Each structure stands twice: as structure tokens, then as C-alpha cells.
């Protein structure tokens, strides 16, 4: 259970660039990909445009004003029906703050946003061997075994 007096969840907007920068740092450290998340960071103008868009959703978990976790998701508007689905692209909690309900709280807040946007599902992928992520997503959703392919852009 998330202790509400110590950690808060907020949705980032175009005015929250310092928090987004903090979240990029958390993602880099949590995924052991500091170079990916730090060496070529987007410009402030790019991040401001992205955070101000209607398709990008970012939630940050804050403790004493510092980012300790977060989620980055995209709303994908469907064409076959007037509905959308939400794709969780990144979800991470800093090592010192794990196993305290923060990831679950982030997903629960995303579910509220998805409901307001009339999304019918939230989906996420987990890497084979990432047992904590698989356990979290199994607790919250239904597992589908699919194949993922990266197609290079030439």
C-alpha cells in the first residue's frame, strides 16, 4: 500500500521539465541504461511539446519533491472503433523505493486517466527474465504470450 503522506503521484505537463529530467534519470538508473537516457537527452522545447501533447502521458512518483519513480505511456487512438488503448512504454521505481506499492499506484492512476479518455485497455510488455515486472503485471492484468519484432528503418 502506498503511504500517501510520503509519496504522491502527479501527471506531468509541459511546465514540469525539471520533473521530467528527474524521471529520465530514474529510468536510466533503473534500467541500467544511463547512457541511453542521459547522453542525448531531448531539448527542453522537444520535451515541452511532447509533454503538452494529447497522446503522451507521464506520471511521476514524488517523495519530498524528488522523483522516485514514474510511468511513460502513449494513447493509441484506434481506427476500427471510436476508442483508444494505452501503451505503457516505461515504468520504473528507483531501487531504494521498490516493494512499497509505488508501481501499482502509478498503474492505478493511469487506469483513472485511461477511463476518462475512454480507453478500453492498458497494455505493456515485459522482458523474459524480468520476474518483478512479470509478477506485477500478472497481479494487475491478463497475460498474453506474443512475439515482438523490431523493424529497422533504413
UniProtKB/TrEMBL annotation:
GO terms for molecular function: acyltransferase activity, transferring groups other than amino-acyl groups. Residues 7-154 form the N-acetyltransferase domain. It comes from the Bacteria. Gene3D superfamilies: 3.40.630.30. SUPFAM superfamilies: Acyl-CoA N-acyltransferases (Nat) (SSF55729). PROSITE patterns: GNAT. Transmembrane segments: none annotated. It holds the Pfam family Acetyltransf_1. Keywords: Acyltransferase, Transferase. This is AAC(3)-I family aminoglycoside N-acetyltransferase.
Amino acid at each position: 500500500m502506498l503511504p500517501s503522506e510520503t509519496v504522491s503521484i502527479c501527471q506531468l505537463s509541459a511546465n514540469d521539465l525539471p520533473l521530467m529530467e528527474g524521471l529520465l534519470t530514474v529510468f536510466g538508473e533503473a534500467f541500467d541504461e544511463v547512457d541511453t537516457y542521459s547522453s542525448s537527452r531531448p531539448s527542453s522545447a522537444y520535451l515541452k511539446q511532447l509533454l503538452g501533447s494529447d497522446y503522451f502521458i507521464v506520471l511521476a512518483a514524488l517523495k519530498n519533491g524528488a522523483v522516485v519513480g514514474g510511468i511513460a505511456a502513449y494513447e493509441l487512438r484506434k481506427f476500427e472503433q471510436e476508442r483508444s488503448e494505452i501503451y505503457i512504454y516505461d515504468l520504473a521505481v528507483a531501487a531504494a523505493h521498490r516493494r512499497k506499492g509505488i508501481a501499482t499506484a502509478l498503474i492505478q492512476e493511469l487506469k483513472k486517466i485511461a477511463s476518462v479518455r475512454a480507453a478500453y485497455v492498458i497494455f505493456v510488455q515485459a522482458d523474459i527474465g524480468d520476474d518483478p515486472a512479470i509478477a506485477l503485471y500478472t497481479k494487475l492484468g491478463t497475460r498474453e504470450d506474443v512475439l515482438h519484432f523490431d523493424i529497422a528503418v533504413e
